[in-house]
Inverse folding.
């Protein structure tokens, strides 16, 4: 790959889906975009899922990410919540699979560990650390966007570590 | 609607997704197609979800259903299973939502009640009753296809009852 890879990070949710897109540079990763997809609550759940899918597809078509890094499954939620979250995650997974973009999953704790240094970091700690690491003018909001950037950074760290190990 | 409506019934699953397509006639519903989507197990889960989505989209493009009737959520499964089943369900919901096809959800018990007369019917009872009601040469297999036809029939009964109530 001649160009540095672009990572799309996604923090899926039934109400708010956070996204963060970074380009991996040897020194500092560059933020291309971040924010959240928040379909209007007055819509049916099916219309909301369609908006999540269309929005992620539009992000992919705009930024051409090489990789999707997505928050992996919570196992402690109740089955009803897990089912709904599964549908929302499915929208991101399908949008990437349709474009043959490789998918990597990271547990929320692993993303926090990679960014803050502890898997039990607070939302505010993640937001402040993301601001520092990515040289943003202010902490990214909402927290879902910060989490998505953290997942993208977690993947960048993972491939960076792998590359360093390969060089040795 | 001048033509009798076409109902696409879906019984979603992570390994096997059953489908059944019927055209509602005043006397006997007509079976247009039934079967199952069984993506190869050697593929990644993402590739399998893509196959589920593409297959349902192809069924919609071939048969132009007016409605998607889909098995609703189980609440007793564990969160990990519910999450995966949610992703599979999401593929069917998105395929319908992208074509602006209305979606109706039915609990498995309600579908069994509509077809067999009891919500606790066995798989074999459902298969035999579907064979009788739809004048099929043999019980539909696999059971996931029979369940999908049962969900489609359940929706046909529901709109039939509503129509009869409206006429009174």
């Amino acid at each position: 790959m001649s160009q540095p890879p672009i990572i799309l990070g996604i923090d899926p949710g039934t109400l708010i889906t956070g996204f963060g897109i970074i380009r991996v540079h040897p020194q500092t990763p560059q933020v291309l975009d971040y924010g959240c997809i928040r379909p209007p609550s007055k819509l049916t759940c099916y219309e909301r899922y369609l908006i999540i899918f269309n929005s992620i597809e539009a992000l992919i078509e705009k930024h051409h990410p090489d990789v999707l890094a997505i928050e992996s499954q919570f196992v402690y939620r109740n089955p009803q919540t897990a089912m709904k979250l599964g549908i929302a995650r499915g929208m991101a997974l399908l949008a990437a699979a349709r474009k043959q973009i490789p998918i990597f999953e990271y547990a929320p704790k692993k993303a926090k560990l990679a960014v803050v240094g502890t898997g039990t970091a607070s939302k505010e700690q993640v937001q402040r650390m993301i601001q520092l690491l990515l040289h943003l003018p202010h902490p990214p909001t909402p927290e879902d966007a910060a989490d998505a950037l953290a997942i993208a950074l977690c993947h960048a760290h993972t491939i960076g570590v792998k590359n360093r190990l390969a060089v040795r």
Chain B touches chain A at residues 46-47, 49-50, 53, 73-91, 93-94, 96-98, 103 (CB under 8 Å).
